[in-house]
Amino acid sequence: MSHPVVVIGAGLGGLSAAIHLRMRGFDVIVLEKNSQPGGRANRIDDRGYLFDTGPSLINYPWVFEQLFAASGATMGEYVRLMPVDPSVKFYWREGKTLCLSSRFDGLAEEFSNFEEAADVKIARFIHDTAHRFRVVFDHLVTRNASSVASWIAPVPKRELFRLGLFTTLDRQLKRYFRSERIRAALGSYAMYLGASPYELPGTFSILPFGELYYGLWYPRGGIYSLVRAIEQRAREIGVELRYNAPVSAITTTGTRVHGVQVATGEFVRADVVVSNVDVPTTYQLLGRNPSSRSWPMTPGVITFYWGISADIPQLHHHCIFLPSNVRQAYKQLKERIPDDLPFYTCLPSRSDPAVAPEGKHTLFVLVPTPTISQAGESFDWDRAVSLAREQVLARLHHHSVALSASSIEVEHVWTPRDWSQRFGLYDGSAFGLSHTLMHMGPLRPSNRDPQIAGLYYVGASTTPGTGLPMVVLSGRMTAERIWNDTRR
Ligand SMILES: Cc1cc2nc3c(=O)[nH]c(=O)nc-3n(C[C@H](O)[C@H](O)[C@H](O)COP(=O)(O)OP(=O)(O)OC[C@H]3O[C@@H](n4cnc5c(N)ncnc54)[C@H](O)[C@@H]3O)c2cc1C
Fold it and tell me: pLDDT category, 451, cuts 50, 70, 90?
């Protein structure tokens, strides 16, 4: 190939694709619009408070280890992952709480507050779902496939029916747990995948399983230490990274990619372009109208980054505050901010004091919202921020969490509009394209453009899907696709 491969965007998907391509012998240039890597997994550094902007929970650590191994290195030499256990604490308004853990005894004791014979039921859930998890991981999320038939071909028919593709997440969980609270907690991850647990395929019961069985992890120094480590490894193997380089157009000769136009005026010639930009936003770079087809997107988020001058001993590293009526909250989320606000808090300084000034805390609060178009043109985001701030503080107070507005000495807030402007997230959707049955596997946008030869995609809105481990896998899968295509 006479020109380097151009990767647009230094999110974790883009960095992973760049590393895998470089290791296959391609020259690779990454063009990133912002001044630093990571995309959604970014960093705000303010007066000694180090905030991770987006992801805060790390699952499946082996995926990141494999990325370093593929580049000829050992992850532990670059960044250390620490387990967070107990992992997540759930709160209900009525006062009940539930702490998840990878330690079976502790978990059984917590579940027994809600469910009879909890130990037997957890054991059954773990046993059955472990099997599903292996099938999904070995066959469905780690391989390129061009059609549904070739996607499911390696999965024995008997196994296929057991995966829960044709039931809902809530129904799948109901096979093990009668308690609505336990199901609400284990099903709460559905929100990040763009549907309620009453709509999302039952296959996604592998998510709570993965967290219980393989644990939750935290890189020392914050999620951004992992991003920096991956960026450093990319540089070491010879990937060229250029920041403040926003791509304004992908040019083609009709059916073949020709190069990319950078907004600074430079044109970079390329036979292969990999876009890490959200797929519908990439359509805009191609002069295509993304609204010519429908893109069911995951929700938006308002994110608060609070530097807290006091201790908050009641808060765990990860907490989720659930609404009393989960179904209603999911329904309302499609058009407005729910009345009874569900939200997530992350206090990384609980496990890692180095991310805050001495004796102080960094607190991240994630409030789900509709996307920009769902909220509508006239939606007042400033008012939504004020209301969300009030509601979060009131709910924390309700649970005797000692956090007052006066102890917030640093505040940054990002709405879906900020997320969209900073990282090109289509419609302000935080996690990309939804993962309903019709948007899984080869039914998601392919990582190879069907019309333009030489144009590929990587990241949350292509295959296999959203989340840091998935976009890292996406990088490997896109590189494999390119390798196979260029050898042909
Ligand atoms: C608030 C929040 C919380 C989350 N929590 C978790 C979590 O706890 N655990 C988890 O695993 N996942 C989580 N996620 C999901 C996870 O962050 C994403 O799935 C993942 O980071 C997406 O990576 P990506 O490489 O696909 O895209 P991105 O991170 O969006 O990267 C795309 C890159 O392209 C760049 N770009 C865009 N347009 C251009 C252009 N025109 N020219 C050049 N560059 C451009 C952007 O600046 C960006 O750097 C969370 C996401 C959000 C928003």
Answer: very high
Range 62-84 average pLDDT:
98
Q: Find out whether the beta carbon of 467 lies less than 6 Å from any atom of ligand 1.
A: yes
Q: How far is CA 316 from CA 49, 247, 312, 320, 381, in A?
A: 18, 41, 9, 10, 29
**What confidence category does residue 409 fall into, taking pLDDT thresholds of 50, 70 and 90?**
very high
For 41-102+215-219+299-430, CATH gives 3.30.519.10
How much distance in Å is there from the Cα of 38 to the middle of ligand 1? 7
Nearest in space to 407 (alpha carbons), one of 482, 282, 331, 310: 310
Instruction: Say yes or no: CB of residue 16 within 6 Å of ligand 1.
Output: no
Q: Is 246 in the pocket of ligand 1 (CB under 6 A)?
A: yes
Per CATH, which fold does 5-35+243-294+435-487 belong to? FAD/NAD(P)-binding domain (3.50.50)
Q: Is the CB of 455 under 6 A from ligand 1?
A: no
Domain residue extents for the chain: 5-35+243-294+435-487, 41-102+215-219+299-430, 103-212
In total, the chain counts a number of residues equal to 488
Q: How far is residue 14's CA from residue 340's CA, in Å, rounded to a whole number? A: 37
Atom of ligand 1 minimally distant from the CA of 15: 25
Give the Cα separation of 418 and 151 in Å (integer).
37
Is any ligand 1 atom within 6 A of the Cβ of residue 6?
no
Q: How far apart are CA 85 and CA 81, in angstroms?
A: 13
d(CA 89, CA 112): 15
Residue identifier of the C-alpha nearest atom 22 of ligand 1: 460
3-state secondary structure of 457: strand
Question: What value does the mean pLDDT of the chain take?
Answer: 96
CA 242–ligand 1 middle distance (angstroms): 18
Entry pTM: 0.97
